[in-house]
Amino acid sequence: MRLKISHRTEYAYDAPLSYALQRLRVFPKSDAAQNVVEWSLAIEGAREEVRYDDCYGNDTRLLSIEGAPQTITVTASGTVETVDTAGVSGRHAGLAPLWLFERDTALSAAGEKVTALVTEIGEGSDLDRLHQLMLLIRGRVAYETGTTEATTTGEEALCAGRGVCQDHSHIFLGAARKLGYPARYVSGYLRMDGVDEQTASHAWAEAHVAEIGWVGFDCSNGISPDERYVRIATGRDYRDAMPVMGIRLGQAQEQLAVHIRVEQ
């Protein structure tokens, strides 16, 4: 599938900024499931200071803002060709060792609820058990926007029974690690049927299965990623793979608008 993607982030401030720094992870890379035909980054109100691959292999850019701008716009766009690999993204690679993805994080640590969920997983192959986990999470946590925040943990979302793809992924990470599988968070885009305009990027989880490698599980949709998915970044949880994060100095109040378009 050939997908055309545009991801525009707009910041507006009620007073000039004295200084701000942003970290971007909005550049996809080619792999077994996707080929990046072309991709570009347009920046207004800021400048790119440095680019590098982080320890997870994510293309990372740092932007600095000074000179008192009151609006900043960052637009990542391009074309990616994808194939359906049944969610398999390949062998582990990169500087981060595989054991790092067995470690808990503040957002994904398994508490009592997640630990209890793990006990419901029946016998079967590694893939059978992980698919069971995905469907259990989908059945227990309704997809509802506006019910959680970026700081909500997987344990909190499971207790509430509501959340979004970020929360589903954090629950899966904690439970999969409890089962003994290295697991990581994936940020990216999803081509939704009949919907071009979106207000947020997508997220899912991957578990590392011996003899296969990394396998994706999208609890929000109950499937392993197919040709409609484009991966951008990976990490131990949302904070490692979030598309945009930053800091700013001053008292200016910020208004944020995100416009994403994914079309075939």
TrEMBL record:
<dbReference type="InterPro" id="IPR013589">
    <property type="entry name" value="Bac_transglu_N"/>
</dbReference>
<protein>
    <recommendedName>
        <fullName>Transglutaminase-like domain-containing protein</fullName>
    </recommendedName>
</protein>
<dbReference type="InterPro" id="IPR038765">
    <property type="entry name" value="Papain-like_cys_pep_sf"/>
</dbReference>
<dbReference type="InterPro" id="IPR002931">
    <property type="entry name" value="Transglutaminase-like"/>
</dbReference>
<dbReference type="Pfam" id="PF01841">
    <property type="entry name" value="Transglut_core"/>
</dbReference>
<feature type="domain" description="Transglutaminase-like">
    <location>
        <begin position="157"/>
        <end position="221"/>
    </location>
</feature>
<dbReference type="Pfam" id="PF08379">
    <property type="entry name" value="Bact_transglu_N"/>
</dbReference>
